[in-house]
Every structure is written in C-alpha cells, then in structure tokens.
Design a protein that fits this description.
single chain; alpha+beta; Thrombin, subunit H; 3 domains; six-stranded antiparallel beta barrel; about 30% strand
Length: about 475
C-alpha cells in the first residue's frame, strides 16, 4: 500500500502502468490524477484495447511505482491522439477509484464492511477525546501530558438493511523530527454485512447515511474518507481484510467545513438511548419518502443553485411528502369516477379537439388535494411550540408559498400579486422556513419527539432569527 492515505478532499496522483483485465500482457505507462471533489482521470502514453474514440470499459487495472494496486471503475475515453510521429496518447475519466486492490469486473467488487468518516461527525457525536494536564515545578510548566480517551463502540442492527451500522473511532499519530508531534482522533461509521455485498449497495447506503447526518446536523455533510474491506480480500491478494480506499464524486465537497458542536440540530447525546430505533426508522421510511427527501436535501448538497430553484424543490418536496405519506383525496375513487364521467360528458363536443383533450387530462388529478390544502394540513399537525419557527399565521404562509410557487412555475400575473419572487430577502426567508418545515416533518416521521425538537430549536443560535414572537 501507499505510505500516504489520502482523503476525498486531497489532490493526488500516481504514476504507474495500466491495463485491461482481459489483456494483462498489454500494459501502458501513465499517470492517475485525483482532484478534490471526485474528478478521476488517467493520462496514458499509449492506448488500451483498440485505438478508437469513445471507448468504455467496466474496469481498468493498474499498479503504481510504489507497488499500490488500483482499480478504475466505469472508465470512458475523454481524448485520443495519434500524431505524425506515431506517438499515441489517451486520456480517460472514471466514476470510481479503488486504491489497494484489483477487481477484474464489476461483479467482483464486493465488500463485507465499509468504514466512513463524515465531516461534522465528531461534532455530532460530541465526545471530548483529549484530556491535557500541565506539570509544574517551582512555579513553571515543565511538561504537558495529553491523554486520548476513545469512546466505546456503539453497535446497531438494522433489520431493513439486514446489516449493522456501528459508531466507533480511530486514531493516528505522527511526528516531525524532535520538534513536533500530532495525535489525531476521528469518529467513523461502519456499515457491515454478514456476507459480501456489491459496491453499489454500499455507495447507496453511504449516501443515505450522509442524508441522515445532514438532517441531524442541520448543514451540509460530506464523506471525507471511505475504507472498505472484503472477507476474501481483493483478487490476487495474500492478506485478508486488506483495506481498499474508495474515491468518487460526492456533490458538495467544497462545503465540508465542520459545524460547531453547539449548533448541531439533534446531537447524538439527545438520541443515544434510541440510536438503533432512529437508524431503523430512517432506513425504513426511505422506500416511501425518498423522492421528498432527495428534493429537500439537494438544497444542502448544492446550495449554489439559484434561490428560486431551491424554493421550487422545497415546495415539490412538501407536496411529495404529503402525497406519499397520507394520499389525500376529496372523495372515494369510485365516487369520483362517476363525477369524472359526468364532467367529460358535459364538455362541449364542438370545442377544439386539443382543448377538449387538455381538459380531460386535468380531470385525472381532480380528486387529489391541492398543494394549498396539503401544506395547511401538515402545518396544523405540527406542535405549536415548533411551528413558531416556521410561521405564526398558517393561512398567510401557505398562501404566499403557493402563490410564489405558482408564479415561478407559470409566471401568471394573478399569482405574482402575493408572490415574494421579486424580493430576494423575502424569498430567502421563505426558503429557509420551508427547510425548517421539512426538517420537522422528517424528524417527526423518524420518531423524534416534539419535546426534543422544540428544546433543541430553542438552543440553536442560527434559528433565533426565524422564531416568530408569541
């Protein structure tokens, strides 16, 4: 293995030789480059396979000049060049980089466990790991003793995944000659399975855990380091449990600064007695609410998107949440079928064909609750102690939100009268309140008590500006 273990935020490169699994005797020299944020490229002095543009390979294998095995996954050519001297060069882009092992095809990329360090994970967990004492002699400091106190590992079985998610820690130390020494502590979350699972399964659940932490932390969270293990090791490896370091793109890496401990929305200490139930609650509700969750949390992962786009995503998320969680129809479907039939029959047969078809298509959703009604019902169900961080006047909040959504969608003048789309400050305020609204819905859905949510919100300085006076 390489002497340096890089994080997903580092820039690094490896020189080595590279080849296709099906052509092990045709090796090509080149350089692998990884850029902060997940851009993976391979620059070759030669070519793989046939010299053709637009080539795609499941995997490309390599070994670096210091003996490190690498596997590039989902590889596509970005440039091919053949000049008059006969010099051939190629450039490739890859979706995934595995450092520490060889995998000859996608089916072989399986792991028994993956360990992840996320940004703000230490702040969310809240463990004070270092205890320092000063030693005095004759009134002067003559020494400093620092003790590292590692927390106990916390194990949770998640029935929905048929896997374990554990909270643990790791540490490392290094020094520079005689003048400095560093002691580092990191919290890690480990997803482990009885049998090996595909890399796709692990990447999906790394993303879901990231989303859970965004919800609990209240800000963007990113994986900083991913280390995977396989029960049988990588191909051709003598050692079992050889670590495989995983590098890929995760949107939002530029926003991976840690959130201060006192600004964590729901810290571990508040849910530690029910952590297994919280994790199970999160993963069990994903099948139903994933579309709503993805729309909501996208505004954290990609905060640079236009403010009006963020607003529309959040409104869509609210509507999706209610529709998927509660349904929402005015009358029974059989009863509505009769109304729908009568409405279609009442259409003037002489009206233009396209207009008639347009009206008929609208009757399909005529029995579903309006967005206005869905938002009103959800807000009325929220504990008043929490709702004051969203709005004091449900009717006005819903009207302004829906009219702004309608104007930004259809740009009709009637909706513009009560819209805040032209006032950046008001649109930002409305967008942030919608984020609080959705966070409350999801936290409650996971089983977190209203008392806890209200207590935590009251202690968060960054939410103080949104609280409406009683």
């Amino acid at each position: 293995m390489a002497s340096t273990i890089y994080t997903l935020l580092d820039d690094f490169k490896y020189k080595g030789v590279w080849w296709l699994a099906e052509e092990p005797n045709h090796k090509v020299g080149g350089t692998l480059l990884y850029k902060n944020g997940g851009k993976i490229s391979l620059e070759l002095l030669g070519f793989l396979g046939t010299f053709l543009p637009d080539k795609q390979y499941e995997v490309v294998l390599g070994i670096t000049d210091n003996g490190t095995r690498c596997t590039l996954v989902e590889v596509k050519t970005s440039r091919s060049n053949l000049n008059f001297t006969g010099m051939q060069t190629e450039s490739y882009r890859a979706a995934l980089l595995l450092v520490g092992g060889h995998f000859s095809n996608l089916d072989n990329i399986t792991f028994s466990c993956v360990c992840i360090n996320y940004s703000s994970l230490e702040e969310w967990f809240g463990h004070i790991a270092f205890d320092s004492h000063f030693e005095n002699k004759d009134g002067k400091v003559c020494g400093i003793t620092t003790k590292l106190i590692l927390p106990d590992q916390i194990q949770s079985y998640i029935p929905t995944l048929d896997a374990n998610i554990d909270l643990g820690s790791t540490w490392a130390t290094d020094s520079e000659g005689l003048h400095s020494s560093n002691l580092k502590y990191r919290m890690i979350m480990t997803i482990s399975s009885k049998d090996n699972r595909s890399y796709g399964w692990y990447l999906k659940n790394i993303h879901h855990l990231r989303n859970l932490l965004v919800l609990l932390v209240g800000d963007c969270v990113c994986p900083l380091q991913i280390c995977a293990f396989s029960k049988h090791g990588g191909e051709g490896q003598k050692k079992r449990r050889q670590p495989i370091y995983v590098y890929r793109n995760f949107v939002g890496h530029e926003l991976s600064d840690s959130v201060p401990k006192h600004e964590i929305r729901i810290p571990f200490s508040a849910v530690q007695d029910n952590i297994a139930q919280l994790l199970e609650g999160w993963f069990s509700m994903l099948e139903l609410l994933k579309p709503s969750i993805d729309l909501f949390l996208m505004t954290f992962h990609s905060p640079d998107i236009y403010l009006d786009v963020q607003f529309l995503c959040l409104m869509h998320s609210v509507e999706s949440f209610h529709r998927r969680r509660y349904g929402g129809r005015y009358v029974d479907e059989k009863e509505y079928a009769n109304y729908k039939k009568a409405l279609i029959a009442a259409l003037d047969t002489e009206m233009p064909k396209d207009l008639r078809a347009s009206l008929k298509s609208r009757f399909k959703f005529g029995n579903e609750y309006s967005l206005r009604k869905r938002m009103s019902l959800l807000l009325k169900d929220i504990d008043p102690r929490i709702r004051k961080w969203i709005t004091k006047d449900i009717s006005e909040f819903v009207k302004t939100s829906v009219d702004t959504r309608n104007y930004l969608t259809h740009y009709d003048e009637e909706s513009k009268l009560n819209s805040v789309s032209d006032d950046v400050g008001k649109l930002w305020d409305m967008t942030e309140r919608l984020k609080i609204f959705l966070a409350v819905l999801l936290l409650t859905e996971m089983g977190i008590a209203s008392d806890l949510i209200a207590d935590r919100f009251a202690n968060l300085h960054r939410l103080a500006r949104f609280r409406v006076a009683d």
